[in-house]
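Thought: the user wants the 3D structure for the chain below. I'll pass the sequence to the structure tool as-is, report back what it returns, then summarize two notable features.
Action: structure_tool
Action Input:
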Amino acid sequence: MQYLRMFYTCLQEVNDVGGTCLQPLSFLYDIPGAQKDNDLLDKTFMVSRALKISPILKPLNGQNVYQSYFPAGKWVNMADWAEIISGADNVVSLSVRTTANIHLAPGALIPFQSNTNLQMMSTADVLAAPIMLVVNRD
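Observation:
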C-alpha cells in the first residue's frame, strides 16, 4: 500500500504514452563493460524508474546476506531510510529481510503513504491517509 500512488501514476503514464512500469536495471543505467557480464544485473529491476528491487532468487543455504549490484550514485534504503551506497558502481551485500530490499534511485521523487499505523481496508481509507513525497537528492 505504501507505493500505491506511485503505481497509479506510472500506470497512467504508461496508458497515455506507452512503455512499462518495470524495467531491467541495465535499461536505465549505463553499466560499465566489466560489470555487464555480472549475473547480478539479471536479478534486479526498477519500478517506475525510481525504485530498485533486489529480490532473492536462489537458495542462500542458511546465509543472512546476498549480493546486489548498484550503479553509481546515492541509493536510499526505503525500509529504514539509511543511505546504502554512494559513489562509483559497486556490488553490495544486503541483509535478508522479511520484505524485499527496495532502494530509492538517485534523484528520484515518489509519493509515499505510510501504512504502519493505519489499517486501510477501502479506497476511502487510502484517500483519507496522508501522502508524503520522498526525495533522494543526489
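Final Answer: Structure generated. Residues 4-17 form the longest helix (14 residues). The CA atoms of residues 50 and 105 lie 5 Å apart.
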